[in-house]
Amino acid sequence: MEERKKEMKEKINEKEIQKGKSNEKNVNKEEKQKKEKEELKERIKELEEQLKEFENYARLLKSQFENYKKDVMKEKEQLVVSTTGRIVEKFIPIVDDFKRAFFNAEDELKNTKFYKGIELIYKNLLKTLENLGLSELKVGERFDPFEQEAVERIEDEQKEEYTVVEVVEDGYKFKDRVIKPAKVKVTVKPRR
């Protein structure tokens, strides 16, 4: 019987040892799970920070691309305006030749159908150039060095100095840029 008691005690001890071991295993499992949970939380935090960085980078790229598109559109528009301006500029001597021809035409010729046809062609050409952005410079009484070129100085005591007396050749603007200054005669005070 004592042996039996001994055996029972040993079995009980073994069970308790096993329970202790299983408790240790459970504690180890719980610690492991906590550790894994904390690692996962840290990893989630890192990934969220990376996501924010990527979102910020994506916003930055998007805004840079939008600015790039605007710049390209502006450059295209400027290129079109510049090219059109150069083409229009080539037609100015032709317009001036038409004006000289009309000015020097004899009165008998002005009543012919041919003259009126040429005049119509000139008006159509001028209208087309104006639609593209060409405009004739308005010449005021005062000389404007930014829009006019003085080709002759006339001495005159009665008139104010640098008054435009006569327009020799018309000047032209394309959009807001002077492409041919008006050639004018201006007054100056006589030298003494």
Question: What features would you describe in this structure?
Answer:
66% of the residues lie in helices and 16% in strands. The mean pLDDT is 87. Helix 1 runs antiparallel to helix 3. A hairpin with a 2-residue loop joins strand 4 (172-174) and strand 5 (177-180). The chain has 192 residues and is of the alpha+beta class. It has 3 helices and 6 strands. A 3-stranded antiparallel beta sheet has the order 1-4-5. A 3-stranded mixed beta sheet has the order 2-6-3, with no helix packed on it.
Secondary-structure blueprint of this entry?
Elements: H1 2-104, H2 107-110, H3 113-132, E1 134-136, E2 148-155, E3 164-169, E4 172-174, E5 177-180, E6 182-188
Parallel strand pairs: 2-6
Antiparallel strand pairs: 1-4, 3-6, 4-5
Helix pairs in contact: 1-3
The named CATH superfamily of the domain at 136-192: Head domain of nucleotide exchange factor GrpE
How many beta-strand elements?
Answer: 6
**Shape designation:** rod-shaped
Rg over CA atoms: 47 Å
Main β-sheet, in a few words? Answer: 3 strands, antiparallel
H/E element order? HHHEEEEEE
Mean pLDDT over all positions:
87
Number of helices: 3
CATH architecture assignment name of the domain at 136-192: Roll
Strand content: 15-25%
Q: What's the CATH C level of the domain at 136-192?
A: Mainly Beta
| CATH topology description of the domain at 136-192 | Nucleotide Exchange Factor Grpe, Chain A, domain 2
> What would you call the structural class?
alpha+beta
Strand order of the largest sheet: 1-4-5
End-to-end gap:
155 Å
How helix-rich are the residues, as a percent range?
55-70%
Unreliable runs: none
